[in-house]
Amino acid sequence: MITTPILVAALAVAVLVVLGIGVGYVVTLGVGGHGLDARLRTASYLFRYDDALEWLGVRAARRKAAVAELRANMADALEDESAAVVVARLGDPRQLARDIEAGARGPRPMLGVAVALCVGFVVTLVGIVAADAFASGVAAAADANVAVEGTSGILPGYRFEAETDAGGQIAAMSMTASLGVAVGIPLLAGVLAAAPWRAFRKERA
Amino acid sequence: MRYLTIPSTRFHHEDVNDLDPQMLKGLVSVLLLRLIAQAEDYGYALVVRLREAGLADMAEGTVYPALSRLERLGQVESFLVPSEKGPARKYYRITPVGEDALAQGAAGWKQLSQIVTTLLEGDRP
Which of A58, A59, B35, B110 is deepest in the core (most CB within 10 A)? Predict the structure, then answer.
């Protein structure tokens, strides 16, 4: 049997592990030998730069090389200037990533997943709102013990079924989603955003 | 193979601090090709050399994208050199394509600068 103290201890261990991984990541990613402030600033910059490259669809190997090059350059720049100045001279990491990788972009899987999830969420939300509107309409009719079926104009292929009880209130409600709309539209949006065809396109200047 | 260590950050020439960044951007590629043709070097050292030449406000955020573009165009190629201070440095060397681009860029700049000088120094009506 798992007791509360065991759960608390397990949670504490999990938090410590996550913190340890985070600190280890900062120590690994940041430029060493220049104090904690420099390490944190450079780690933060490199993390955001890497993240921006990933969102731009830069291939993993190229991304790794780009981050390593920037880390080496930052390490040398820190010999001459403070971390704050070094970071300031580089500018916004997202802009730097865009400038460096302009014309050399590959597929954007992360963006594709994010767009697919967002569109899927919106489609689901619209379905729920449509179902609620349908149920409200059925309830407003106040007919007792009836089963009503209907469709939605804005979500083709969706079917709604509602049953009322003896008092004319909704007793059961169901919604049948169209696979093409519920999955197909988010998938299509995700694929368009991810731009997988970029993997086959020759890099341009 | 020639490597260049980071030179002093003291400026030996009169610093040029008030140049239009947009005007400089168009010239960075040619300047980088010239510096790399003189001696193979890596990103930050090239920034320092540009600053020593008088472009004191030359930012890394301008130079690194230009280097990346030159490499993508095949005008320079890169190789890693281990560093005692930290991560391996990515050195750049000029390619034959880069030599051609440098020659074209230098000729274009001379022509343009002559025209601009003539226009700027000509008698006003």
Answer: A58
Interchain CB distance below 8 Å, B6 and A76: yes
Q: Is the dihedral of CA A41, A46, A49, A54 positive or negative?
A: negative
CA of B64: which chain A residue's CA is closest? A100
Q: Which residues of B touch A32 (CB under 8 A)?
A: 86
Look up the pTM and report it.
0.61
The Cα A184–Cα A181 span in angstroms is 5
- pLDDT tens, residue by residue, A169-204: 888 888 888 788 888 888 998 888 887 777 766 554
Alpha carbon A11 to chain centroid, angstroms? 26
CA dihedral A21, A23, A26, A31 (to 10 degrees): -130
DSSP for chain A?
Answer: ---HHHHHHHHHHHHHHHHHHHHHHHHHHSPPSSHHHHHHHHHHHHHHHHHHHHHTT--HHHHHHHHHHHHHHHHHHTTTS-HHHHHHHH--HHHHHHHHTTT-----HHHHHHHHHHHHHHHHHHHHHHHHHHHHHHHHHT-SS-EEEEE-SSSTT-EEEEEE-TTSSEEEEEEE--HIIIIIHHHHHHHHHH-GGGGGSPP--
Coil vs helix vs strand at B35:
helix
What is the per-residue pLDDT for B125?
61
Give the position of tokens 């005008």.
B75
Give residue A75's region: left, alpha or beta (phi > 0; psi -120 to 50): alpha
Per the CB < 8 A criterion, the answer to whether B63 and B49 are in contact is: no
pLDDT digits (tens, 9 = 90+) for B10-56: 444 444 556 676 777 778 999 999 999 999 999 999 999 999 988 88
Decide: B83 and B100 in contact? Cβ < 8 Å. no
Kindly give, in sequence order, each residue whose CB lies less than 8 Å from that of residue A152, ignoring residues fewer than 6 positions away: A127, A130, A134, A158, A160
